[in-house]
Input
Amino acid sequence: MTSEQENRVIGRASATDRQANSSERFSFWLRPDERVNPFDIVDAEHYETSRTFGLVTNIYHTTDAASHLSNLISNDFGEAVEEPNTPRQGTNVAEVAVLSNDKDIYMPVASEARVRFADAEGIQIALGINAMKPEDRVPAGLIQLSNGSQAVAYIDRRYVLGPEAAHINISGISGLATKTSYAMFLIQSILQTMDVSKVATILLNVKFDDLLKIHLPGSLTPEELDMYQQLSLEPREFPKDKVTYLLPEGKHTASTLRPNCFGEPPPRDMTQIYAYDLRTTVGNRKLDILFSHVPDPWDTIGPLIGEITEGIAGNESKWRHIRTWGDLLTQKPLVGNGVPQKISNVAPSTVGRFLRILRRVVKTRQSGVFVDQLATRHKTIANILGKLQGGFTYVVDIAKLTDAEQTLVFGDLLRTIYDLYSEGGVASGWEEEGELPEKVIVFVDELNKYAPARGEAVRSPIAEQVLDIAERGRSFGLILFSAQQFMSAVHPRVTGNAATKVLGRTDAAELGESGYRFLDKDVKMHLTRLDQGSLILSHPIYRQPVKIRFPRPAFKQGR
Amino acid sequence: MPNPLSGLTPALQAICDKGKVLPATGQALIDLLGPDQDETFDRLLTDADEKKKPVEMVLEPPPWKLYHPLDHLPRPLDHVFRYFLDGSARTYFLGTVVERERSSPVQFAQVGAAAVRREADGRIAKAGAERRLILMLSQDHVSAELWAAVAAQVQAIPELTLRNSGEKDQVTDGVQVAEPRFRGAHKANWFMREVELDLGQTLLEKLPEGAWMVLDGGLGKDIIKWPRLKDWDHPPLIGVGKSFSKEPSFKVGGGPGGKILNLYELLAKLDFGCRTVAFGAEGGKKAFWYVRLRPQRELDYPLMGVIKVEMPNPRGEAVPTELIDRLSGALLAERNVTPHGRDSRWHAHLYPISVAERLVKGLFYSEEVLRAAIRWPTI
Output
């Protein structure tokens, strides 16, 4: 694009008695052949030769017709459909939300101010990127204007990984793994722009084998390769020697040695198989997580879980013979003569309910991840994640697990790292191993399963765990990258703590929810028809959300 | 923003110095004129003798018919009219200056004219525009000393002129306005017409080959005397009146079968998409006819939706019927779009003319600006 195209005046600011310009907004009319689109960034001349940058939020067409009736009458009362001799005078008017002024002048843009498309430098000034330290800049996508101008949308690392703010939440119904792709692109971008040894990454694979081939190179289109170049990122897969896959034990793993995952499992030397037996589950105080999905309005199951945990973890005599899930379900002290027994103050009926639920989870409907005894080839999540290493990426596959099992694994994972960091690694004896990575990024899709906005599960142990990470994780270096279709379905304290929000296409009903109040009403409307591959990025440094494009991650994606 | 009319203050100061001023509530008050100004001008600019007797002259070759059906001639088929010209005036009453037993209204007017050019694709572009600011006093009602003092101050401001609101012109007697203040408002319209005619002549000089220009309103007696018009058999210029005098009557046919029709009778039988025969005026130097742009059934009154078309005819000979049909067919195609809702005369208004009108009004300072900007200096 030539500089003449970049410098072309596309219109002039317009203020009327009914539609004034303000410090926050201004309007401009467009020359007849000019085209702008919502989310374009424009540059308006302002006082003291300064420039005010703004985001186009809407464009409307106005004419001198007093009413629709006037237009009907102007077509011979609706009978003429030919082109009129003189088309009605009209213009396209763009509404603009002010982003910034390069001399910090926030007086309203004056009527008649000349307006141009912002150039690459202007886009960065508009978003406040120029004020970011270069070492804090993380490429988060490309902003492309209607005139072809492009600029990299950098986000500030201090607002993604702390200490200023943290966490990223991605919403939308974009489909075709857009949310996961973006999260993975952003993680790679972070890892490529900082000392990788200071960061460990944990990815939950929740669908098919989407994230089970991240060590293999993928195929990218020339356009995507070009985008990587513009972003100054290398299109590369995760290094093979730095990836560990944690795959679940299945019902047939013992005989086939094949873990319970979709597709071809990753190579054995990169794989650990995890399973849950009674003793380690209870001993590691994770039994409560297994009951996260169970309503407990009278708080009866909670005390029972406490009794069992204290008994088994404390190796009390009446629990000492309980070694397996089967033992717990069929033997004293919970069961006598096939009948649920009273334990301390817990009534037999509660014990009976507990047993029915537990049997369903660990026996009748289980995927195979619950075993009687851990074999030598088995690891626990706590084993592996309790010894996190900087520069490593851990993929925890839960795609084939039942909902209760998925909740257990995710809760186990969060509690393990939360305990690890909140206690400075003391609990796991980490201080003997070396230094903990400064930051741990945890990416999970379908967050609404674990921290829902409403229902009984709002107060579940897993939800509490997620809230802990969202609210206090930043101070320890625990960073949550989360995704879900509907932001309103996730606990507002979780999404509220995500300083950076990324939105894909979203339906109008969802956009009416309170969580989207931070968006301008026009921006909301555009979200309903956002292209696939485009996202809206809201970051604390930006005064308004911007539209970005991004390349697919460079690793091989499953399915 | 600086006061755009600060240059007026010394002139007002001169008025205050030489006379006693009774201000109009301290601010400028708009003087409104009735919307039938075009009709008044049309009536007054017609030769006095012609008004008294029926129009007999037909300026079409025989055999002619009183009513002609027209072919709709839209722009893509034949882009006839390319230039459209209109003027506008706004007058403000500032106060009354009293000198001994004499008094004169002090008025300020913004007058201007604008022309638009229509491109081949229908888009409108500005072809020319001019605005003038006029300070008006009735010269006969102030002393020569006061007039000279104000004139001296006004000279220093290029855009501003001092004009005599009591000056006689072709219409002052006709409008029969005795009250000096209302006469000033009419004078402002006459000054507007001067600007309009100046711009029209300028544009006519550089009119591209084949392009026609449309002036808002009648041509009067002065336009048909423009020397440049003699260069053409049929100058590419018409005036289109949306309000016109209802006084004329027409003698149709000779001999015992001939009859006299008043304008109402003539137009009542004029169907949609038809024109009347072209009549002659000013000794044949001007041809005029009527075109019905809209069906009567859609309008409130039979005379609505009819325009009066005037064309200079410097040779004074019959105008070819084909040319009148072509111009009328093209005017018929101009009926859409309309300024309905913005102008009560929308049914007979040509849209590009209304755009030119808006263009010239856009050059004017708003009433709010004027109210704030014009203040009597020492009252």
Q: What stands out?
A: Chain B touches chain A at residues 74-76, 118, 122-124, 294, 298, 333-342, 346, 351-352, 355, 358 (CB under 8 Å). The CA atoms of residues 290 and 308 of chain B lie 5 Å apart.
